[in-house]
Amino acid sequence: MSVLTVDDLSFELKPSTRRRTLQITVDRSGELVLSAPPDVEEERLREFVLEKRFWIYTKLAEKDRLQKAVPTKSYVDGEGFPYLGRSYRLRLVDEQDAALKLLNGRFMLRRDSVDTARGHLIQWYSARAKVWLWDKVQDYVARMEVQPVGLKVQDLGYRWGSCGKGDWLYFHWKTILLPPRIAEYVVVHELAHLHQPHHTPDFWQRVERALPDFERRKIWLAEHGMDVEGI
Q1: With left for phi above 0 and alpha for psi between -120 and 50, is residue 160 left, alpha or beta?
Q2: I need a labelling partner for 139 at 20 to 30 A (CA). Which of 23, 58, 72, 129 fits?
Q3: Model pLDDT for residues 174-211, shown as the tens digit of each residue
Q4: Which PANTHER family does the record cross-reference, listed alphabetically (predicted)?
């Protein structure tokens, strides 16, 4: 038994005379296994890992999300809440005209709204996400030759976005919690789906033409996207 290490990923190598192709699996504990014919050179193994890197990080993130208890926020003074990649501290106030505001670098929450704070945050995030994401869509419609009908922000479970019938775009409200350059990648990803519903080579070429460094952004999302869970 041997081990192959590529950057921060380590694989248990499983040579098999019955295999004709390379295969990566992520077992229940998160261990990585690379199965290959016995005569494949190490250089080719490394190339294959790099080709599948995004898929690997995505699978590891999914397993982390399922296995780890996501810490939930407490709506108390000093708790931090993300917005476009930055953390803003919460301050409880006795009086203000809205249940929740972002003012002078702090989220201001009225004390009588603490019990319903999560709902107010989701509503606040969703409203900002709709405006920010739509503005970002407009930055790319011409160069990507698309014209979406509109945009909706809602809870999409584990998906960041989707492209629906009639050229509608859908985004998870948590997209607005990500750093701007990562949220921008989510936008471009969904715009590319207006041309191609599946992740074909043509799809990724369209993404790359719009965002030449898209791969770094999607890897960051796969590795760190779950950091905004627990709101």
Answers
A1: alpha
A2: 58
A3: 999 999 999 999 999 999 999 998 888 899 999 999 99
A4: UNCHARACTERIZED PROTEIN YGJP, UTP PYROPHOSPHATASE
- Whole-number CA gyration radius for the chain: 21
CA–CA–CA angle 4, 227, 87 (5° rounding): 135
Q: How far apart are CA 12 and CA 2, in angstroms?
A: 6
Q: Which residue has the tokens 């945009």?
A: 151
Tell if the pTM clears 0.85, that is, is over it: no
- CA neighbor of 119 nearest in space, from 225, 231, 226, 229: 231
Contacts 24+ apart (CB under 8 A), 114-118: 114/75, 117/75, 118/73, 118/75, 118/231
Q: Please answer whether residues 218 and 191 qualify as being in contact, where contact means their C-beta atoms are separated by less than 8 angstroms.
A: no
What gap in Å lies between CA 126 and CA 171, rounded to an integer? 10
Q: Which domains are delineated in the chain? A: 3-67 (no CATH), 79-225 (3.30.2010.10)
Residue 45 makes CB contacts below 8 A (sequence gap 6+) with 4, 13, 22, 34, 36
Burial 164-187 (b: 16+ CB within 10 A, else e): eeeeebbbbbbbbbbbeebbbbbb
